[in-house]
Amino acid sequence: MIAISRRVMLAISAATLLLGAAPAARAEDTGTADQAKAMVEKAAAFLKANGREKLLAELNNPKNQFIDRDLYIVAYGVDGTRLAHPYNPKLVGTSVLDAVDFDGKAYGKEIVETAQVKGSGWVDYKFTEPTTKKLANKSLYVVKVEDLILGCGIYKR
């Protein structure tokens, strides 16, 4: 009987350790605000080195170099036209200005205004997270570079 109790205790201890490690492993699967900013800076450097056409072609590739876990770069024209989205090509060529999130927030206008007025900044809204396909709170970091607005978002869990 004591041997069984020890086995049960060992099993419970092992399960507790595994469950305790799960949130840390999950955190590693998601990008941070600093990583999102760094990815935008990397895309801006690519734009300056290779030009607009090559950047947009790269960003529209669903396996591009600017995708890391749940982080990815999107691009807009300064007029709000969506120019690149690696996960939703149907959005390319449409305007972000009329975009509202699931709560009715006009985040599209805020993206363009933040980039145009401040040059860079964060915009918060709700969006479908690409790896889980679930609705999540998102913060998009945007920067105006030449005649483009580049953005990379983090999903808050």
Give me the secondary-structure topology.
Layout: H1 2-28, H2 33-50, H3 52-60, E1 67-68, E2 71-77, E3 82-84, H4 107-118, E4 120-128, E5 135-145, E6 148-156
Overview of the structural elements:
There is one protein chain. Helix content is 42%, strand content 26%. By secondary structure, the protein is α+β, with helices and mostly antiparallel strands. The protein has 2 domains: 1-30; 31-156, Beta-Lactamase (2-Layer Sandwich), CATH 3.30.450.20. A hairpin with a 2-residue loop joins strand 5 and strand 6. Mean pLDDT is 86; it is low at 1-25.
Number of E-type strands: 6
CA-CA gap between termini: 44 Å
Structural class: alpha+beta
Secondary structure tally, helices: 4
Summarize the helix and strand pattern as letters: HHHEEEHEEE
Q: What is the 3D form? A: globular
As an assembly, this protein is single chain
CATH C-level class of the largest domain is: Alpha Beta
Whole-angstrom Rg: 20 Å
The largest sheet, given as strand count, sense and whether it forms a barrel, is: 6 strands, antiparallel
Portion of residues in beta strands equals 25-35%
From the coordinates shown, what is the CATH architecture of the largest domain? 2-Layer Sandwich
Number of domains: 2
CATH superfamily of the largest domain: PAS domain
What name does the CATH topology of the largest domain carry? Beta-Lactamase
Overall helicity: 40-55%
Q: Which whole number gives the mean pLDDT?
A: 86
Low-confidence stretches: 1-25
